[in-house]
Amino acid sequence: MFATAVILGIVAVLLAGPVPILLSAARWPARSPAVALVLWQSIALAGGLSMIGSLLGFGLIPFGMNLFDGIRSLGGHLVAGTLPDEPSFVAVLMLCAALILGSHLLLNLAATFFRAERQHRRHRHLIGLLSQPLAEHSGTRVIEHDAPVAYCLPGATRSATVLSRGLLQLLDDDQLRAVIAHEHAHLMQKHHLVLLAFKSWHSALPWFPIANRAENAVALLVEMLADDQARRAVDDRTLATAIALVGSAHQVDPLGTDVELADGPDHPFDLVSPRVRRLITPPAPLPAPAVLAVAASAAALLLLPTLLLMLA
Amino acid sequence: MSSLGVLERLLMDVLWDSSEPLPATDLRDRLLTPAASVARRKPLATTTVLTMLSRLEAKGFVTRDREKRPHRYRAVATRAEHTADLMHEVLGTAPDRQAALARFIGDVTPQEAATLRRLLDSAPLAHE
């Protein structure tokens, strides 16, 4: 049990620091964003599991030789109101920490999804009142606003892509098709769920420098995945131009009086330039063996803490 | 969009375009337009309008003046105010950023925008 707890602790530290730092600095994710996104999710999940597992392992040492014995014995002591033979203050502290961390992460995830759903519902209703469908494209709605904006509104029964009047004026027909295909990919691949999960992780551990990095890296990967779908509808240059146009339009024409763009530390992460560069000089996708290796590491990362705990 | 959704939008349009609070009967009369008839396919009853109004009131889009009988209804905020609210939410400038939506892209600095334009201008044209 002690060895397991130590190993899990080392894994947790690695997954909380060096591994995400290396991955966010790596260049290959732009070549195969899908498998990179899987790896990020696996790192986040395995990181949380091994952190909680390590605390649990240390805490259960006085109670039993392995996880199941330990939990059974802990339950028995709790029911009977007794202490184990060698009570340890540190062990109790570790158990509490495992419990608090675990429930904090889960409750935060639930709260994030709940809040997002409530806000989306109100947003959808307002969009229904304020926007008109765009005739040539199904599932799209146009809102009268000068800022060039496009976004997708995920919904349980019907999702919509919302475009602003300013965007329709800024882009030509092909560029518009690129944007719509891009948003459609977000909706089809349910990117909002991944983004919300990482947002929740970040908000649960705001003092955790890696969470911010992970959220940004995941946001960029999700955009690249949607770009790759849009490339099937239009050529790379059209898509790149659309991205650059919309991205720089906010600077050139700051949206009138209604909307002030947040600048400064809130938006330090550039989701535009890496994508435009990637479209102008597309990197070769990772070879199949490399993709397989990444996928296998992602699976191994998830299995490692689980197996260690089970077999301890 | 359901026919009820279309009707709600038309109803809000009437309220947004009106300079004064309106009773439900006036609202029904103003909704007897071709667009509303297409959505509805039968004459609009005042009770339907009242149902929609209380739904919209519960959502915080409509409020009523209870001093006179019948009650007069008006929009809580203008069309532009609601649109601005939505845009704040989308652009991530709303106070509650929990549910920030995935929008087409972020923003770049002016320098970066200039670099990107140069890159695009110098990039070879794709074969179309």
From TrEMBL, chain A:
Q: Which UniProt keywords apply?
A: Hydrolase, Membrane, Metal-binding, Metalloprotease, Protease, Transmembrane, Transmembrane helix, Zinc
**CDD domains for the chain:** M56_BlaR1_MecR1_like
Q: How is the cofactor bound?
A: Binds 1 zinc ion per subunit.
What InterPro entries does this protein's entry cite?
A: Beta-lactam_resp_regulator (IPR052173), Peptidase_M48 (IPR001915)
Which positions, given as ranges, span the membrane? 6-26, 38-68, 88-114, 286-311
Q: Which cofactor does it need?
A: Zn(2+)
Which ranges carry the Peptidase M48 domain? 121-204
What family is this protein classified in? Answer: Belongs to the peptidase M48 family.
Looking up PANTHER family in the UniProt record yields: POSSIBLE SENSOR-TRANSDUCER PROTEIN BLAR (PTHR34978), SLR0241 PROTEIN (PTHR34978:SF3)
The protein in question is named M56 family peptidase
Q: Which organism is the protein's source? A: Cryobacterium breve
Automatic annotation (TrEMBL), chain B:
On whether Metal-binding is a keyword of this UniProt record, the answer is no
Can the keyword Oxidoreductase be found in this entry's annotation? Answer: no
Superkingdom of the organism of origin: Bacteria
Going by the UniProt record, its keywords in alphabetical order are: DNA-binding, Transcription, Transcription regulation
**Homology family:** Belongs to the BlaI transcriptional regulatory family.
* Protein name per the record: Transcriptional regulator
Q: What is the lineage of its organism?
A: Bacteria, Bacillati, Actinomycetota, Actinomycetes, Micrococcales
